[in-house]
Design goal:
Blueprint (H helix, E strand, L loop, with lengths): L1 H17 L1 H5 L20 E2 L1 E3 L2 E2 L4 E2 L7 E6 L6 H12 L1 H4 L6 E7 L3 H11 L4 E4 L4 H5 L3 E2 L4 E2 L3 E4 L5 E5 L7 H21 L2
Parallel strand pairs: 5-6, 6-7
Antiparallel strand pairs: 1-4, 2-3, 2-7, 5-10, 8-9, 10-11
């Protein structure tokens, strides 16, 4: 009986240790330094890929001017929370992002472009992935965890004029409300564009 209690405690301790890396991904960056709503989104470029393969040319944020852009920083491909987040984006792509009509979702992490591309292919993700392997993009947005070299989970909605219209810091991938808020922010940015072109 005593050995059973010890075994249970050991299993509980192991389970607690197993969730530590995932919990560290919830770390939030310095709020004051991260680009604010209403400011111009810092331009960036990086090797990009989709579920269909690696893109020939780097993706430049400035090339997407005129579209609503969701820039979703995430820590690591194929990890638990990131999988929940990206699968939710995929499964709600039609409702959250109008199926990509006038909206581009750019998912950014410090993973290699080949790592991102294989994940996008395997999971049939409709988003564009950008590799921030040097951490330069994360530094521009002040969302990088320098010690562990990963981008923290922060999402931005960038209006067609290039200004930030929404910021989720952190993006809480396990809560339903996070997706509802993101969808509303995307819709607002897209409607503002439509109203301006009438």
């Amino acid at each position: 009986m005593h050995s059973l209690v010890i075994l249970r405690r050991a299993l509980a301790a192991a389970a607690a240790l197993a969730v530590v890396p995932a919990a560290s991904f919830a770390q939030t960056p310095d709020t004051a330094a991260v680009p604010k709503v209403g400011s111009q989104a810092p331009d960036f470029s990086g090797p990009a890929s989709t579920r269909y393969g690696l893109l020939k040319n780097p993706l430049h944020l400035s090339d997407l001017r005129g579209k609503t852009v969701v820039v979703a920083f995430f820590p690591r491909s194929r990890t638990q929370g990131c999988t929940v987040q990206m699968e939710s984006y995929r499964d709600r792509y039609a409702t959250l992002f109008s199926g990509g009509k006038g909206i581009v979702v750019v998912s950014v992490s410090t993973d290699a472009d080949t790592t991102q591309q294989s994940w996008a292919r395997d999971a049939n993700f409709p988003m564009v992935f950008v590799s921030d392997s040097s951490g330069e993009i994360g530094r521009k947005y002040h969302v990088i965890d320098e010690k562990n070299h990963y981008d923290t989970r922060v999402a931005f909605v960038i209006s067609p004029d290039g200004t930030i219209s929404y910021r989720a810091m952190p993006f809480k991938e396990l809560t339903e409300n996070a997706y509802a808020e993101l969808g509303s922010a995307v819709a607002s940015a897209s409607h503002a564009k439509s109203a301006g072109t009438r």
